[in-house]
Amino acid sequence: MLDWPLLEGPIRTLLQVGAASLVMWLLIRLFGAPRPLSWKAALVAAGAVLAVAVTWLGQYVARHVLVLFPDRLTASVYVWVGIGLFVACLACGVAAVEQRRRLKVTALAACAVAVLACANQVNATFGAYPTIRYALGIAHPDDIALPASRARTLVSTADRSLESQWKRPADLDSRGKITTAVIPGSLSSFGARPAKIYLPPAYFAPLPPRLPVLILLTGQPGTPQDWLGAGRLSVVMDSFAAEHQGLAPVVVVPDPTGGPLADPLCVDSRRGKADSYLAVDVPRWISAKLTVAQHHSAWSVAGASYGGTCALQLATNHPDVYPTFLDIAGSVEPTLGDRNRTVAEAFGGDFTAFERINPLTLLGSRRYPDSAGAVVAGTSDAEARGDGRRIVQAGKTAGMQIHLTELPGAHDWRLFSSALRHELPFLARKIGLID
Predict the structure, then answer these.
(1) CATH superfamily of this structure's domain 146-430
(2) DSSP labels for 45-107?
(3) Domain boundaries of the chain, sorted by first residue
(4) Do 322 and 280 touch, CB atoms closer than 8 A?
(5) What is the pLDDT of residues 141-151, one digit of tens each?
(6) What's the predicted TM-score (pTM) here?
C-alpha cells in the first residue's frame, strides 16, 4: 500500500469521486435542514468569503512575513486550498445544525476526505509525492547500510574517459542502491538532516572504479528524500547506468537548508553556514567515506529551484571544488523575495557582503575558463527562463562553457526530473565518465 501511486490511478480517482459525493451530501444535508433558506445561503456565502480570506492571508504571511518560500505559486494551488477551506466551513455548518451525533461525525469525516482530495490535487500540481511512502517520509525497504570505502580499486587515468577503461563484470547487478548517512558539519556547525546517497552498479564491482561525484540539491521547502521520490533519482540513474556498462556518478543528496522550511540562502550568514557545509564539510566527508574520484575535475553539483540557485552559487564561489554544475529552474541570485530584504536579514544590511557571493557579480568580475554549466528552465516557467538567459549570457562573458535548455513543463518536479535526465550525459562527459 505504501507504494500505491498518488498522482494517478485509483487512489487519486477515489479521492476525487469520494470528495465530490461527500460535498454533495453536505449540501443536501445543509439545505434540507429546518432553517430559513436565507440563513443557509448566508452560511454558504460566509464560508466562501472566509475560505478566500484565509487563503489570501495564509499565502501573504507565508511568503511575505515568514518568508517560508520565495517562489510564486500557481493559481491552481490557491484554488484547491480555497476549496478545501470552503468544504471545511461547510462541514462545520452541517455539524452545527445536525442534531444526531452520527451525522455530525459523518460531516466531519466528509470534510477530512475532501481536504485530503484537495491536498492531493496540490500535490499533483507540483508532482511532489508520487506515493504514500514518500508522502509519509518512509524509507524504502531495499535501502542498504552505508558500505565501507574500498581501498583496492581500478587504476584509471584522467586523460581518458572512465568508460573507455572499464569492463563490466558479467555478474554485476543492473540496479544501483540507496543508502542514508549523516554528514556532520565539522567546520560549519551546520545542522543538516541525513543525506541520501545513490551508489551505481559499478560501485559494487569486485574491483570498482573511483567514480565521479554528483552533489544533488533539493528545493526549499524540501528534504533530500524529494529527489528519490518526486525526482525519480534511482530510475534516472539506473537508466543511465544501463546504457554505460553499469557506470554512473555517485550521487550524494545532502541537506542544503537544515530544516523543511529553513532558508539559509546557501551562504554563510546569521542564518547558518550552508556554504561552508556544502563546499567543505560535504566534500571532505565524501572523499573520506566513499569510493570516489579524489580530483575535483570529476565532481559536479546540481539542483532544482532553490537547489539550482545554490548549485550556481557553489560553482561561482568555489570553482575549484565544483567546476561543473547544473542549475534547474534556479533564480539569478539568492533571495528572500527581494534584494533589500535579503541583504537586511542575511547580511545585516551589508550590500558589499552580498555582492561578494552573488553569482552575477562574480561572473562579471572573474574569469571561469575551466568551468562548465547547464541551465534548464521549463517553457511554462517565464521567471526561470528569464533568469536562465541572464545567467548563460553572464557565464559566456566570463569564459565559462555554458548553455541554456528549455524543456516542456512548469516549475515542478516533473520538469526537475526530466531536466536531470536530459543533462546527465553533459555532466557525465564533463566529469570524465563518458566520451
Answers:
(1) Alpha/Beta hydrolase fold, catalytic domain (3.40.50.1820)
(2) HHHHHHHHHHHHHHHHIIIIIS----SPPPHHHHHHHHHHHHHHHHHHHHHHH--SHHHHHHH
(3) 10-126, 146-430
(4) no
(5) 778 999 999 88
(6) 0.86
